[in-house]
């Protein structure tokens, strides 16, 4: 984003707002990851430790979730770039 037409105080404020939003988005994604993988993989509560099956499931679930998030982010960036180039024409 271009904040060059804002004064320094407004630029600092906008930067803080964006950083706060990014942190909220990250925490939401992390929370969703934990909830989804826990509900999918953890179903034996007879021990404090994860079984090897549960641990493998958690690793696979986490890996898939992160790859999915990266792919969605990349597609969003591509769409945003296309929209910006179309806007500049």
UniProtKB/TrEMBL annotation:
Span of domain Tim10-like: 17-78
Family assignment from sequence similarity: Belongs to the small Tim family.
Gene Ontology MF: a single term: metal ion binding
GO CC term, one of those recorded: mitochondrial inner membrane
Entry text on domains: The twin CX3C motif contains 4 conserved Cys residues that form 2 disulfide bonds in the mitochondrial intermembrane space.
Protein name, as recorded: Mitochondrial import inner membrane translocase subunit
Entries under InterPro entries matching the protein: Mito_inner_translocase_sub (IPR050673), Tim10-like (IPR004217), Tim10-like_dom_sf (IPR035427)
Principal subcellular localization: mitochondrion
Superkingdom classification of source: Eukaryota
BP GO terms, sorted: protein transport
Membrane topology classification: Peripheral membrane protein
């Amino acid at each position: 984003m271009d904040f060059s037409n804002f004064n320094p105080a407004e630029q600092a404020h906008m930067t803080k707002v964006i950083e706060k939003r990014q942190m909220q988005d990250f925490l939401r994604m992390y929370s969703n990851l934990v909830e989804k993988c826990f509900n999918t993989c953890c179903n034996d509560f007879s021990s404090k430790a994860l079984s090897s099956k549960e641990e493998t499931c958690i690793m696979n679930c986490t890996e898939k979730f992160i790859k999915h998030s990266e792919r969605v982010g990349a597609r969003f960036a591509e769409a945003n770039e296309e929209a910006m180039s179309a806007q500049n024409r």
